[in-house]
Amino acid sequence: MNTPTNFAHWTLQRDVDGTAWAILDRQNASTNVLTAEVMAELATLLDECDRQVPKALIFKSGKAAGFIAGADIEELARLDSGAAAHALIKRGWDLYNRLAAVSYPTLALIRGHCLGGGTELALACCYRIAVDEPPTKIALPEVMLGIVPGWGGMLRLPQKVGAAAALDLILTGKSIDARRAQKMGLVDACVPPRVMDNAARMLVNSGQPPRALSFFQRLLNGPLKGIVAAQARKQVTRRARPEHYPAPYAILDMWANYGGNALAVPTEKPTSLDALIASPTTKNLLRVFFLQERLKGFGKEVQQFSPRHVHVVGAGVMGGDIAAWCALSGLTVTLQDQNVERIAPAIARAALLFEKKLRDKTAAHFALDRLIADPHGDGVRQADVIIEAIVENLEAKKKLFADIERRAKPEALLASNTSSLRLADIACALQQPGRLAGIHFFNPVAQMPLVEVVASDATSSLTAQQATAFVRQIDKLPLPVKDAPGFLVNAVLAPYLNEAMRCVDEGIAPEIIDAAALAFGMPMGPIELADTVGLDIALAVGRQLVAADMQPKRLGELVAAGHLGKKSGQGFYVWVAGKAQKTSAGIIPSGLMQRLLKPLLAATAERVAAGVVKDADLADAGVIFGTGFAPYTGGPMNYRAQHPNQE
Ligand code: NAI
């Protein structure tokens, strides 16, 4: 091996046979991000390869954390004009075109995350190898930030995997693992870590022609583009409106009409880079990205807290799914309920979750082995974290915690999943009330990213910090909240659902109300949501959080008649095979959505003013990740500030 050429972030290393390695290990940073400096150095590295042409060049990461996490989002967030956006896109577009045109063979060895500009770099190489281990994920997630993969992704991905599969990835931003990437042709090989360097060396020097599309796929990516674009457009229209989410429409136009070159779209078009960068959606989605990063940053203050064993009491809707999620996250879990019969359905649900999420029979089997039915609660003695998710009854919870405290390890973290009781009232039952935190998950646990971490006045700061760290450990987003009725998310959601149900009382069809919310960009209409949550729960929460004279009438009648929504087969809608049976919606009265939003916006502002969350940004993060509140708005507080006349 020859002496390597060291740059600040890259190293160019040459083997004796002439194969060179471009190793990215960004200085003073935990992840490889393509900052302006990293890109400028890559250009210098290519100059160096022009001076002394290697036999082949292999890109790999010098970090354990992953390959390349994409462009520098902070730099994107600072873009303040169309011209600045053009300059940033041109930098990567030109550089990757240069890489794609070099005279020697190139290969990207992808291990760990490979996102956005990282994927585009890999696509500009002749070959790609993905390392077959769970952290390897490949994606072009730009659309989620309201931007486009402008460094060649829209040009090259369709050439590798075909137009339809490429558009599916680019328009959804979803990630794929190493095996899937190989199956669809995004990478040439998928190999275990121990052979990766050799595999890369052999493939890049093999002389093997790079993968080519079939004749038919070439037609779909060429003269028949229009057909694929029309099909994709239909799907995009179903998911997002152009006025809320312009980026997917821009991607389709750039691919179908400009060869995937974002720079070629005329400035005045609504699909141009200039229009995208000027759109409030892009700013708001970048804001949501940073809010998410802020939540991810919580829980880092505690050292020496790495729970291995979680004990969950209550194997119902929530406890069962919390236990499954913890086992999926690699923890040993004991699951307690009154008898084995009550635990069995939770284990069966967990098995389905493991199969779906792990897509590997052995891994699913191991996860199931980690989830142990424990009808007598023996796990309490060994557990590092104990989560209570039994019925919502104060006396039952107090009794349970008094017993748990006697048997648990003194350093074990105690947590309740209560959604409506005061944490301080439950903590009264403990000798050391400071040990109890709220860890409030949302339903369905596997799908909802947010978990509220509740601290009462009695909760010690160490307990609160440990609870937050635990939530991060299981890869959820922790939101610290105070012990106030409904915490943040339910307190905001309840008045909104309530107002929607009052609209039904006034004779507006549920379909129309739901259509108004969907048109605004909510993931589900409020009436369908109430039916899904369960009308008994909606009634109980509404009674706690909404004034008595504002209670909806029909809701009470439905619950009295035993119509509890999705779970009973009838609520505001009739439910068949898990689907609400809706008639066509009709015309949405003007001002309906503003009416529905008003109590939600007011409740959010009230909670911020009352200090339930630390600041308005955290309220926005909580409501977006806890309810799915239309992300393009940047959250209710941001929306309120941008639309001051709506209240
Ligand atoms: P559930 O009724 O589905 O399950 C409760 C389970 O606890 C039952 O299986 C019951 O047998 C068991 N249980 C009752 N007393 C017990 C005891 N002393 N020891 C062991 N097991 C016992 O209830 P769900 O919906 O799962 O709610 C549980 C908790 O989670 C409640 O505090 C609720 O407020 C909270 N929560 C519920 C949400 C939901 O959407 N259902 C969302 C977030 C929190």
Output the keywords.
647 residues; alpha/beta; Rossmann fold; N-(1-d-carboxylethyl)-l-norvaline Dehydrogenase, domain 2; 7-stranded mixed β-sheet; binds 1,4-dihydronicotinamide adenine dinucleotide
Quickly count the helices.
27
Number of domains: 3
Structural class: alpha/beta
CATH fold annotation of the largest domain: 2-enoyl-CoA Hydratase, Chain A, domain 1
What composes the largest sheet? 8 strands, mixed
Biggest sheet strand order reads 14-13-12-15-16-17-18-19
Overall pLDDT confidence: 95
List unreliable stretches of 5+ residues.
none
Q: Radius of gyration from the CA trace?
A: 27 Å
- CATH superfamily heading of the largest domain: 2-enoyl-CoA Hydratase, Chain A, domain 1
CATH class identity of the largest domain = Alpha Beta
**Residues in helices, as a percent range:** 40-55%
Q: N- to C-terminal separation?
A: 69 Å
- Number of β-strand runs: 21
Examine the secondary-structure arrangement and name the CATH architecture of the largest domain: Alpha-Beta Complex
